[in-house]
Fold:
Amino acid sequence: MKKICVMGLGYIGLPTASLLANNGYEVLGVDKNARVIDKLNAGNPHIEEPDLKGIFISALNEGRLKVSGKAQKSDIFIISVPTPLGDDNKADLSYVEAASAEISRYISRGNLVILESTSPMDTTEKLVGGIIHENSGLKAGKDYLLSFCPERVLPGKIIFELVNNNRIIGGIDRESAEEAREVYSSFVKGEMFLTDLRTAELVKLVENTYRDVNLAFANELSLICADYDINVRDVIKYANMHPRVNILNPGPGVGGHCIPIDPWFILQSVSRKNTLIERSRRINDDMPLVVSGRIFDLIRKNKNPKATILGASYKENVGDHRESPTKAVVSDLLAKKVRVSVYDPLVDDFINREESLEASLKSSDIMVLMVGHNVFRDIDFKKACKLMRNKTVFDTRNFYDGEELASRGFKYYRL
Ligand code: SAJ
Structure:
């Protein structure tokens, strides 16, 4: 049985390691966070994803998946560590560097190294390949195989999409790409397309950048429509009835650890200025300030105003709050001396978080829907009416039925 070492047991590494272990490989999952390793060894995945716990536990119990703080000699190494955005708007590749250095200690001739982490162009060959060469003397494409195979899965549907999505696989040479395809074909039902390293690196970035630009267009339309008192959702709905138009929904900003970040990974490699990509990024980044400005305008006349914010995560029905637009809205309101209370039953830890909706709504002047979690459909508006000081709802996702709320005595505004 071939051995695989998966470096980094986060949102992608842990599900991938579990799937490989359930499909014919002996897997060692490596993570530098000792708390994560302890939790995993106790049978508790630190990530909530449908179907993950079952496949993780079965692999662990049958001994095909082990977890540890250190790598070992293996046939295949997969790097799935974070590549966050640094303060300079460039990729922070320190985790990729550390993982590559560690692999250098255990790699042998004929092994396969796969980078999965979203990375700027040339990271696989120059950074991963460079570090391994420097430390082990082995050269990619000559002594071992090197591939880039990005994840493309949607949080909340990770296991399903890891199995069913198509994959792009880049290789330093054809054999590297083919060997990587062999590994993924153990559990992937989607099609796999082989190409070179740079193309695969850019494809991943382009997918998320395409979505970011589309979202910027939708968000800009929402601002134009607001000037004319036109409902932007109607405009987009009717425009999308054209067979070749597909505009996304405007919202209070673009969050998550991918879409607001990946465009910068392209921009760090280009010298042209004032690109569509950069302008789109700025439009989306400004949206939370548009939202906090609207909230402030609606409550500024009240004495010691208070806003209740529903939703802290970056999107609906997930607990992940990385790059969440709510963070920027809350900071701006606090700077404007508004009292802010955030309620999100899916998020454990957040600035100004309130445990109960009742406490959060008490003497509030406005309820702001930031994230369309299903649980927010069941809010008891009759009770909310009694708790709030002023009955105003600002809906940034077109989530509620405005007429119904108006009939219950609320002033209803949407983005
Ligand atoms: N959003 C809107 N309006 C929409 C759709 C999304 O405002 O119509 C907002 C969301 O609220 C959220 C942000 O955009 O704040 C991003 O959410 P998302 O659902 O568009 O994307 P992610 O970040 O959850 O996952 C994306 C996916 N990429 C694409 O669809 C091209 C996923 O397939 C990638 O694997 C993932 O990024 C990643 O890891 O790169």
Observations:
- The chain has three domains: 3-190, 205-280, 283-414.
- The longest helix spans residues 197-228.
- DSSP finds 15 helices and 13 strands in the chain.
- Residues 118, 151-155, 207-208, 211, 215, 248-249, 251, 254-256, 258-259, 314-315 surround SAJ (CB under 6 Å).
